[in-house]
Amino acid sequence: MKKKNIIQVILHLFLVGALIVVVLPMVYMVSTSLKPNGALYEYPPRFLPGFDEITIENYLYVLGQGKFYINFFNSIFVAVCTVLLAALIASALGYVIARFAFPGKNFLFSFIVLTMIIPGLTLIIPQYQLAVKLKTINSLAGLIPFYTAWTIPYSTFMIKGFVENIPRELDEATYMDGGSVLTVFGRIIIPLAKPGIASVSIFNFLTAWEEFPWANTVINDNIKRTIPIAISGFFGQHQFTQWGYVFALSVFSLLPILAVFIFCQKFFVAGLTSGSVKG
Amino acid sequence: MQTSRKGKFQIGLLLLPGLLIFGIFTVYPIIKLFVMSFFEWDFGSISGQKFIGLENYKEVIQDSYFRTAFINSIVYTFVTVPGQMILGFLTAFLIHQVTRFKVGYRVLYYLPVITSWVIASLVFKYVFNTEGLLNCFLVNVIHVTAKNIRWLDTRWSGLWISMFLGIWKGIGWNMVVFLAALQTVPTDLYEAAAIDGANALEKLFHVTLPCIKGTILFALVMLTIGGFNVFTSIKMITGGEPGHKTDVVLTWMYYKAFSTGAFGYAAALSFIITVVLAALALVQFRMMRQKS
After folding, report:
1. N or C, which end of chain B is more exposed by having fewer CB within 10 Å?
2. Chain B residues with CB inside 8 Å of A17's CB?
């Protein structure tokens, strides 16, 4: 019994030690955001500000800028729309592929899985051209269909797996009661595949929330920028990078993700792993 | 079960939005990419595009900048994939053994994963600045070097920052995936191994790893794709500098397309990367199958 306790202590020591290294960059980000701007160019730099130095001036500056709220709202708008669209579309696809036979089904599913191999950014050129044609360059709403399309393969793949675990007897019972394909979708599949849909949605939210290259390529207007573009804009804007502002804005932009993550922790992990364990 | 006419109509209705979005925004661009790669593509051209056959492919393959970027991508992938997997697995292995604070560790180790690439890149850039915290630590605290090291100014040190970031950001994902896999290993196998006199290391190699082979393959394929997908960190940290020496395939592709307008070249490059990745995924699947 005693030997077991010692082993446990050693394990925790290792885990905590490694954890300190892992969270160090995050701590440094927060500590830098709390330093007065003048202290950011001092040499040698310090890991933590002095107690009397701690200030929220960087946060106040960010909050004092009108465009911050616009950028924030833009990101929320794009992420929420993407999540809802992707959830609906991928659930429908996942349901139909899991439950029904139709011509070209195997081809469709293999193709969807295969597109997961293609690095998303390699398609940026034809997608850019498409966006020009559809006149969605420099349009916030124009981001949504592209993001949705990117999230469909992974989402469909995951949700199909969840649907397959729902007993078919429930479908049959609904049909017996005179229900249709759509009734089964609305009353059986969506409610029972909810954990899967939720976990995929959290992942999609993160994808849309932090997406950088595409938004950076197609959005030019200041007021249409999403948060990641705003942060990188801050970074290049002044001759001296105002690191205090950059990191204060970064901390703000992490809050929604943190909130989503903490509230949905259970779903998040379930979604990540169900695909892998089967494989 | 026979599907009624109404049922068939509803199935079609459910498929339609997905097929439309996927078709227009993913399938069409894939086909378009393939077509563009055979043309000397000019966005402004009214008279139509000029077909040049395999010229773009030839140009890509003979381009020394592309070769540098390709080697960088390979190095990035070969360093970060095992790096993340080994550290992620070790973390999962330890968390699996502890009896308390499991959830706490899981959440905290996952934090870097949910930090956006833009933010993480900026933090790393700031730390590795010539006047940054790391140099200060090396020079003033542990005295391993007398002068500040210019991390961002050479090919390999610049790449190392991105690789370091890639590993740091990936540990959490691997931890979660492996933790789930470890929970599926039947405990009686360990008991049987213990009766046979296996030590901890033997248990790891003869029981644990074979049991989670599927997960290892899954992680390997996903991370290899992720390795070739690296873009934002390179763009933010070194921007390909100095002289495109730290570019990876995607940042080089992006530069060629959007800074020089060589869309045909970039399309050919994209297609080459896709084929390389598909081939790699296939090889990985084969290798894992053979081992069983």
Report:
1. C
2. none
